[in-house]
Amino acid sequence: MPPLDLPAFISAWTALYAHLDAIGYLPPSSVSYPPYGTLASFSTTAPVPLHPLILSLLPRLPYPSSYESALSFELIPRARAQPYTVEGQLRLARDPEMEYLDGEPRLGPGQPEEVAGVLREEEVALTTQLAGGTTLVLDVVQGTLREYSVSNPPPGAESQYPFPHDPSDRRNWPALPAVETVRSYVAKYESLEWIAWRAGVEDGVIEAHDYRVSAASSFSRLGEPSEARRRNGLGKYEREWKASG
Questions:
Q1: Which of 10, 105, 173, 236 has the fewest CB atoms nearer than 10 Å to its CB?
Q2: Which residues contact 126 (CB under 8 A, 6 or more apart)?
């Protein structure tokens, strides 16, 4: 695949946040948008081996405004966005198994401790996963996105994995076209295949393949549609909630 189309990816990633904001899902002041000014987090002098395309991309994306904000919502089902606007935290980009403030990235073969991380320099982890969720691993050179999971095995037969000796290797997950995949996330929200229901609770985003059935049980547990959704004119949520009952 060709290298990542930066403007197209930035547009798709920003649209994901814009939709969640429009429906009143994002907590107030929980997301920061570019331009950010000069940030040490994105400095090329940081002891983190990142490809120039990554260093060009990261400062042009929206992010949770703090660690606390990152913990307050899911960006896609059971996955939280990385707060790269927090100074010095690019290390979280280096290991798809990293969790917030949970130690340091694993060491790759022959790597010095100060540049720890198992991802290649052209790869970056855009999310961190909750149980049953996914970490999105972006490859800017190939223009691909892998939906990596420590909770679930890669799709397909183990004998067909590119790295069958290590089923947990991120490269056993399909390399999806990055821009189109992020656009598909926005489409899932718009169609209510995914329902961003309530931030700050377990399963705050519902994977509602049959959303009337899922909504019926989840809405009774989480409460009625928020005033923010009604104020923003997204009555489809309200109509489907009523239909589900």
A1: 236
A2: 81, 82, 135, 136, 137, 138
- CB of 98 closer than 8 Å to CB of 89: no
In eight-state DSSP terms, residue 107 is B
pLDDT in tens, 226-236: 544 544 444 45
Contact 103/65 with Cβ under 8 angstroms? no
- Decide: 180 and 196 in contact? Cβ < 8 Å: no
Six-digit token string for 231: 């104020």
Query: Does pLDDT of 183 surpass 80?
Result: yes
Of 44, 78, 49, 75, residue with least CA distance to 62: 75
- Which residues, 6+ apart, have CB-to-CB distance to 176 below 8 Å? 144, 145, 146, 147
Rounded to two decimals, what is the model's pTM? Answer: 0.80
> CB-side exposure of 226: number of CA atoms within 13 Å?
17
The dihedral through the CA atoms of 99, 100, 102, 105 has a sign that is positive
Residues 165 and 56: their CA atoms lie apart, in Å, by: 35
